[in-house]
């Protein structure tokens, strides 16, 4: 199958306008005849559902939480990027575009990334109109700060609650449409399969998590906005419920997965404190604006940090990357921290952390200013650790966070299954091999508010004459039967090991062999280990409870998907014999530990096609063409 990204012709800056000018439209009278399913009600899903309902389409939304407000978008705390150049420090749409392309190590599409930067300014206006309380300067202007990988201030923020405030804005828009009867909301419902009829996405099978009932829902188009799969590592910054099942079930129905081994580890998380921990806490990257990262110059030095003299400290990011320092991109900052920790310079009880120190910033700016910018983050840190970060440095460590990979989509955000769209972190489209901080909230909002409302109607215009889909169609019968068979298999399991046992084991394999760094031998070992784990999962799983309300049953389905996805991650990492962004192959690095990219052989998006159970997946390559930027060695020195 040839991958067609359907990128419009013309100059880079004109492509999106050209697309909108030629996109097909649906007149208002016909919109009420068309149904759309949106799975996931975080920023991307809620924004899309509200926007499409506002146009007059019938929308159904589904989320496994008890409210759309519980979506994991709230965890993106630090800010959202926009090229408004309020600081008059040289920012522009092109500079933001270039920073994002470079930040992703030249492994993303020019057209998609430019559109992201171009739409960014409109998002801020939209959010302000919704009442999002962005930080402001004394005169009333919106304030900005910097994030990793850039040398300008383009990040808009609401203290350390930006994701939460943006989500509240989207939620209000969604609830307005629900009150008008244009949106029907299904909370505590989990998508378990995609229904494809004559090659097109026509509905989903869901499980009511409150009653256990299996339900069928049909529509003219399906939108997946279900987030990323970083929880595959078990210990991650993601909420316990985050999972990959919606996109993975779609993958097994024909939607390609792309860039699946591009996983970002966030450098600013709280370190693991014990073997029985189930989640890691994310501290905002915004803290790196004023905090300085360091470790003792002497390995094994466990003295209290305030007793370690300045000349005995190694500010390793400032030393290795003087141009960007503590605001180096996440992949580089995380690997640098891991290198220091692995070399014996780690601090904290488990010697698995580095210091994030605010002493200099407090001395220069005053305690009140730091509290104004980061107060809620410092409060959260003290609640968890019992330590005031105003008085001594924070302990931070890298942790699995964001997945740049996801479902392959074309320029219109449609997958290889016609009628199936993927938005936000559920797709692969904008970030390449590494995401710059504060671009996740941006992509989710831009996909939902400004892109899908044009690209969905362009598809739906061709569905007006389509035969109505009845949920009694045989495709729904087959999909529901497959779901029920898997549930019965889990409930009849007679092993001795819990779901969490398998999830933890998979997470350790992936962290050790396909985590911050990878190598050929380790990836091959991981593939064998995952295959053995899959066999054990099939025979040794013990599941308690029944087919009604049962969180263990929910987890079993998600871990079954993780085991298959983990195998594909390792195959993808093994097939890409280069280092780029978050994909760091140890065989391809310079003498001083920097990545060696291979543009001649690997300047493409790797898209994988499901060929059947236990069969090797087929690799398809979408060449990446760079006409407006020059491929250069990515350097932050």
UniProtKB/TrEMBL annotation:
Database matches in Pfam families: FAD_binding_2, Succ_DH_flav_C
Organism annotation: Pedobacter albus
Organism classification: Bacteria, Pseudomonadati, Bacteroidota, Sphingobacteriia, Sphingobacteriales
Chloroplast as UniProt keyword: no
Keywords, ordered alphabetically: Flavoprotein, Oxidoreductase
Cofactors named for this entry: FAD
Domain called Fumarate reductase/succinate dehydrogenase flavoprotein-like C-terminal: residue spans: 503-636
SUPFAM superfamilies: FAD/NAD(P)-binding domain, Succinate dehydrogenase/fumarate reductase flavoprotein C-terminal domain, Succinate dehydrogenase/fumarate reductase flavoprotein, catalytic domain
Protein's UniProt keywords contain Flavoprotein: yes
Name listed for the protein in its UniProt record: Fumarate reductase/succinate dehydrogenase flavoprotein subunit
FAD-dependent oxidoreductase 2 FAD-binding domain span: 35-441
Matching InterPro entries: FAD-dep_OxRdtase_2_FAD-bd (IPR003953), FAD/NAD-bd_sf (IPR036188), Fum_R/Succ_DH_flav-like_C_sf (IPR037099), Fum_Rdtase/Succ_DH_flav-like_C (IPR015939), SdhA/FrdA/AprA (IPR030664), Succ_DH/Fum_Rdt_flav_su (IPR011280), Succ_DH/fumarate_Rdtase_cat_sf (IPR027477)
């Amino acid at each position: 199958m040839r991958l067609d990204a359907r990128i419009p012709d013309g100059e880079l800056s004109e492509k999106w306008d050209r697309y909108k000018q030629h996109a097909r439209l649906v007149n208002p009278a016909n919109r009420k005849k068309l149904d759309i399913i949106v799975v996931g009600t975080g920023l991307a899903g809620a924004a899309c559902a509200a926007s499409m309902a506002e146009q007059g389409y019938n929308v159904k939304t589904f989320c496994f939480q008890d409210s759309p407000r519980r979506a994991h978008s709230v965890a993106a705390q630090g800010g959202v990027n926009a090229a408004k150049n309020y600081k008059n420090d040289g920012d522009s749409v092109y500079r933001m575009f270039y920073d994002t392309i470079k930040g992703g190590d030249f492994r993303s599409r020019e057209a998609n990334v430019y559109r992201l930067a171009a739409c960014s300014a409109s998002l801020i206006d939209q959010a302000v109109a919704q009442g999002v309380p962005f930080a402001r300067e004394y005169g009333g202007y919106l304030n900005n700060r910097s994030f990793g990988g850039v040398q300008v201030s383009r990040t808009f923020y609401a203290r350390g609650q930006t994701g939460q405030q943006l989500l509240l804005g989207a939620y209000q828009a969604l609830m307005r449409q629900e009150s008008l009867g244009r949106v029907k909301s299904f909370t505590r419902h989990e998508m378990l399969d995609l229904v494809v009829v004559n090659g097109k996405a026509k509905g989903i099978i869901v499980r009511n998590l409150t009653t256990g009932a299996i339900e069928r829902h049909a529509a003219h188009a399906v939108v997946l906005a279900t987030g990323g799969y970083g929880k595959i590592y078990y210990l991650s910054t993601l909420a316990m419920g985050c999972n990959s099942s919606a996109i993975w079930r779609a993958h097994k129905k024909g939607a390609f997965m792309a860039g699946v081994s591009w996983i970002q580890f966030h450098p600013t998380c709280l370190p693991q404190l014990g073997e029985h921990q189930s989640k890691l806490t994310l501290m905002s990257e915004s803290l790196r604006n004023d905090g300085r990262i360091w470790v003792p110059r002497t390995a094994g030095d466990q003295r209290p940090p305030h007793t370690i003299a300045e000349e005995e400290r190694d500010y390793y990011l400032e030393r290795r990357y003087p141009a960007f320092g503590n605001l180096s991109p996440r992949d580089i900052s995380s690997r640098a921290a891991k290198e220091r920790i692995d070399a014996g310079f780690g601090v904290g009880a488990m010697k698995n952390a580095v210091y994030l120190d605010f002493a200099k910033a407090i001395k220069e700016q005053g305690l009140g200013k730091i509290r104004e910018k980061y107060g809620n983050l410092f409060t959260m840190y003290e609640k968890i650790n019992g330590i005031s970060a105003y008085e001594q440095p924070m302990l931070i460590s890298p942790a699995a966070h964001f997945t740049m990979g996801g479902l392959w989509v074309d320029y219109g955000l449609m997958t290889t299954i016609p009628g199936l769209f993927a938005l936000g972190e559920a797709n692969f489209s904008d970030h390449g091999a590494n995401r710059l901080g504060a671009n996740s909230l941006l992509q989710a909002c831009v996909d939902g508010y400004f892109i899908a409302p044009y690209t969905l109607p362009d598809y739906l215009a061709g569905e007006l004459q389509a035969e109505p889909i009845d949920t009694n169609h045989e495709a729904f019968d087959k999909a529901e039967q497959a779901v029920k068979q898997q549930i019965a298999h889990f409930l009849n399991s007679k092993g001795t090991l819990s779901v969490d046992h398998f999830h933890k084991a998979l997470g350790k394999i992936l962290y050790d062999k396909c985590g911050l760094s990878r190598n050929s031998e380790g990836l091959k070992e991981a593939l064998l280990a995952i295959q053995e784990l899959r066999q054990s999962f099939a025979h040794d799983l013990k599941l308690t409870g029944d087919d009604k309300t049962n969180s263990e049953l929910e987890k079993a389905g998600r871990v079954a998907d993780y085991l298959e996805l983990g195998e594909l991650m390792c195959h993808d990492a093994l097939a890409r014999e280069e280092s780029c962004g978050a994909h760091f192959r140890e065989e391809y690095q310079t003498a001083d530990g920097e990545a060696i990219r291979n543009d001649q052989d690997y300047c493409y998006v790797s898209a994988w096609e499901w060929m059947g159970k236990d069969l090797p997946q087929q690799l398809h390559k979408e060449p990446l063409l760079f006409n407006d930027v020059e491929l250069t060695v990515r350097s932050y020195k």
